[in-house]
Amino acid sequence: MFTSDQCYQAVTSRDRRFDGMFFTAVRTTGIFCRPSCPARTPRRENVDFFVTAAAAADAGFRACRRCRPDASPNSPQWDTRGDVVARAMRLIRDGAVDRGGVATLAAELGYSTRQLGRLIHAELGAGPLALARTERVRTARTLIEATSMPMSEIAFAAGFSSIRQFNDTFRTMYSISPRQLRRDGAEHSVTDEVVLRLAYRPPFDFAHLLGYFEARAVAGIENVSDGAYTRSMRLTHGPAVITVRQGHGDFVDCRLRLADTRDLGSAVARVRRLLDLDADPEAIAHTLRSAGLRRLVDDHPGLRSPGHSDPVELALRTVLGQQISLAAARTHLERLVAGVGESLPEELSFGGVDRVFPTAEAIAAVPASEWALPSSRIRTIQTLSQALAEGSVDLGAGSDREEASRNLLALPGIGPWSNGYIRMRALGDPDVFMDSDLGVKKTIADLDASSAAPVDWKQVAMNCSPWRSYLTHLLWAHHARSPAA
């Protein structure tokens, strides 16, 4: 958490980089805002600062209707950190409390309900239920503004247990009823899609991210065309298909086709992780420039470290693609998807995406004779898929990254490169340097050849912490631009 003086300075300058990192509550109006709110700057003695919107709401403040603090990017610290509070936040945003309650959340993290509640409240000023309630309101507001669904259906789709709780929460958060949010009774077009805008902190090199996905796209489950990325997802209550493209301003346009609207909040959280929308590019760039990489950073402004919507899929794709080209990996993956991937309902299929990546259980059941791969690779795929199916390797949103790495490295055929790639993309670790990667090595050799003095890359990488995953992607991006690549 920033100091109060730092927070007030950000509010005075209306600095958008701090949106979502803290919230400003004005005691004289009873309203809380994002730091960049265009309203008149309140006097210093009249404001309080909160780490989360849930804490501000619990303290009796209402969300500003002008700056929409609930629509700001999330704080990047929940992806950076690996402690229990950060893991809990990732699980809550993925819908864990709505799926099984606080007891299930606590059990997944290895804590008692009371211990977990005390830890979260001590740091964030609100407990797990209050945080989950804020996520429900965000989901409900999206459905109210983007669909023509009846209010009763929206209430239960967003995770509320009753219509009364739904209405009371909205009045507490916004001082208006859900129906009033539907602009003067305006009609909403009935569509198969939920259309929304996802905020990010600029700059954002969406074109590079699109190219990264296109080079790895597997027919049937994902597609890149017309400046958009489309892929299927496996969610708790059914499959979904998402399409994302660069929007106007500091937003990504996202279209969601959901089998069950109860999965909306989880789907949005996974899209944000997939595109790394909660990153703080200014802080990352400052750290990497300070490590001596100014030219490299300036050549690739707004580069992201993409995550993945399904850690299990990413892990299996990583192992299957070991030591072969991207094109060869795609061929094997497309055979796998065509063979045991599940077909999407016709109403969800879109843009050439008509299947969902198979489950770990389905992959574990594929006979060794059907893999056109070395026997050692087949053994690794079967062992990993079995471990993921049994849960002995946990790559979920709230998993312990260190424990996951230990369990992965204990499996035959999983080495430092595979572990690092899985940790970086499946677990969203921003501090992974892939120094054993061939592309990274070639880029370093190229940069060393053009440097007037020798560079200690081990020290450079240390100085880039906690953003070494972005260093890895910068080196890959430089290699991709190289004529010899």
Q: Mind explaining what this structure looks like?
A:
There is one protein chain. This protein is α+β, with helices and mostly antiparallel strands and 485 residues long. The protein has helices at 4-12, 53-58, 77-80, 84-93, 96-109, 113-124, 128-146, 151-157, 163-174, 178-181, 206-216, 264-275, 281-299, 311-320, 326-340, 360-364, 375-390, 401-409, 416-425, 438-449, 457-463, 468-481, and strands spanning 23-26, 31-33, 47-50, 62-63, 194-199, 222-225, 228-235, 238-246, 251-258, 342-343, 355-356. α4 (84-93) runs antiparallel to α5 (96-109), α18 (401-409) packs antiparallel against α19 and α20 (438-449) crosses α22.
Give a concise summary.
With 485 residues, this protein is of the alpha+beta class. It is 49% helix and 11% strand.
Key structural traits:
five-stranded antiparallel sheet, globular, alpha+beta, 11 strands, 22 helices, four-stranded mixed sheet
**Total strand count, please?**
11
Task: Determine the strand fraction and express it as a percent band.
Answer: 5-15%
Secondary structure category: alpha+beta
Could you report the average pLDDT, rounded to the nearest whole number?
92
Largest sheet: 5 strands, antiparallel
Rg, rounded, reads 23 Å
Q: Give the N-terminus to C-terminus distance in angstroms.
A: 43 Å
